[in-house]
Amino acid sequence: MEPAPAKAKPQGRLLVSTQLDARDELEERLERCVVIVQGLTNGLSEREANDALNASVCKGQQQHEEVCLGLFTLVLTEASQAQRCYRDLTLVNRDGMNVVLGKINQILMEKFLKLQDTPRTQLVWLVRELVKSGVIGADGVIMTLLKQIAGGDISAKNLWLAENVLDILLDQKEWVLKSGMLIAMSVYTYLRLIVDHGTPNLLPLRQKEVDFCISMLREKFMECLIIGRDLVRLLQNVARIQEMELLWRDLLHNPQVLSPQFTGILQLLTARTSRKFLACRLTPDMETKLLFMTSRVRFGQQKRYQDWFQRQYLSTAESQSLRCDLIRYICGVVHPSNEVLSSDILPRWAIIGWLHMTKNHELFPAETK
After folding, report:
1. Of 116, 146, 181, which residue constitutes the final position of a domain?
2. Are 273 and 185 in a shared domain?
3. In this predicted structure, what is the pLDDT of residue 367?
4. CB within 8 A of 90, min separation 6: which ones?
5. How far apart are CA 247 and CA 331, in angstroms?
6. CB burial class (10 A; 0-12, 13-18, 19+) of residue 133?
7. Residue 16 domain-assigned?
8. In the predicted structure, residue 5 carries a pLDDT above the cut 60
9. In three state form, how does the secondary structure of the chain look?
10. For residues 348 and 152, what is the distance between their CA atoms, to the nearest angstrom?
11. In b/e form, how buried is each residue of 10-24, taking b as 16+ CB within 10 angstroms?
């Protein structure tokens, strides 16, 4: 008698997984919350369902969190119900959406690469709705979302994310102008991305990015000034674009046009760039991998990790522009303790050397033999 075949592991609706992957704890918890919400509302009219949800959230913090996360998960996984579930979420939440904002940030930082296509699309839709509703803390979510737009990556998914986040910023410009840090972070991000979008098929997107950056720089230059001297480098990289060339002329010869408080380019060059900006140009996954190499990997045992990183992020001609972002991050953000510096852990100079030495070999292998 043949043994019965093993049951296939049920595939969740939030994250991509294989038969070998253990069930994700976050996904399981969110699915339990969905079951709770469906148990409260199945078979009821919209008004009755709303009354049931309100009665549940009033019982305590745990019930409030379960209902909010259940509705949040339905927004991500059930596109046809998203509008109604978001409306219910705005009506029943009691904490200014803090539970939802926290979970969005967690997914963006830890699970974004594993999201299935529908939840990824719906997550951006939800962020747009939070911004339109003026939810306090939505600017922080946008900045986390900006971090997920990878430099040196012109894949369809990355371009889709770059354009959709840009559309949110353009459509909700008045809201954007209320946050100085969001203005600076978004200008820093899109000035960097413009460099990657120079091919003919990407020129419409690049023009939108240029228009956005010029608008922010001319209307809110003092907010952009907090970027520091790295703003000069970013502007130099795009200086041949006509609108940027005109901005450069004002920057050098007529700084008062940009802001009465701006005295000239020397004021910009003497301001250091915060590590927040350097870090924002690496995705959370890139950052995790680099920090692991600089804190856990022993010198001499790094090749397998470097090869993996190279295959994942530095294998195309377009991705070579990412190398300067990585080197700048290592120099400006990674500061090992004295204990690590005196140990046999992979030193920063070795990673920087690897990033320099592998560039030509990858692009021109025949010439480097």
Report:
1. 116
2. yes
3. 39
4. 133
5. 29
6. exposed
7. no
8. no
9. CCCCCCCCCCCCCCECCCCCCCCCHHHHHHHHHHHHHHHHHCCCCHHHHHHHHHHHHCCCHHHHHHHHHHHHHHHHHCHHHHHHHHHHHHHHCCCCCHHHHHHHHHHHHHCHHHECHHHHHHHHHHHHHHHHCCCCCHHHHHHHHHHCCCCCCCCHHHHHHHHHHHHHHHHCHHHHCCCHHHHHHHHHHHHHHHCCCCCHHHHHHHHHHHHHHHHHHHHCHHHHHHHCCHHHHHHHHCCCCHHHHHHHHHHHHCHHHCCCCCCCHHHHHCCCCCHHHHHHCCCHHHHHHHHHHHHCCECCCCHHHHHHHHHHHCCCCHHHHHHHHHHHHHHHCCCCCHHHHCCCECCHHHHHHHHHHHHHHHHCCCCCC
10. 22
11. eebbbbebeeeeeeb
Same domain, 146 and 211: yes
Question: Does 268 share its domain with 339?
Answer: no
pLDDT number for residue 215: 97
Question: Distance between CA 3 and CA 234 in Å, rounded?
Answer: 64
Classify residue 234: in a domain, yes or no: yes
Same structural domain for residues 66 and 191? no
- One domain for residues 270 and 288: no
Looking at the fold, whether 187 and 213 belong to one and the same domain comes out as: yes
As a whole number of Å, the end-to-end CA separation of the chain is 60
The domain boundary, picked from 281, 302, 331, lies at 281
Same domain for 267 and 189:
yes
User: Above 50 in pLDDT, residue 365?
Assistant: no
pLDDT tens per residue across span 244-260 = 999 999 999 999 999 99
Mean pLDDT of 337-360: 90
Number of structural domains (the chain) is 3
**Owning domain of residue 293:** 284-358
What pLDDT is recorded for position 363?
A: 46
Residues 141 and 271 in one domain: yes
In a domain, 275, yes or no: yes
Whether 131 maps to a domain, the answer reads: no
- What are the CA-CA distances from residue 39 to residues 69, 147, 202, 217 (Å)? 14, 37, 47, 51
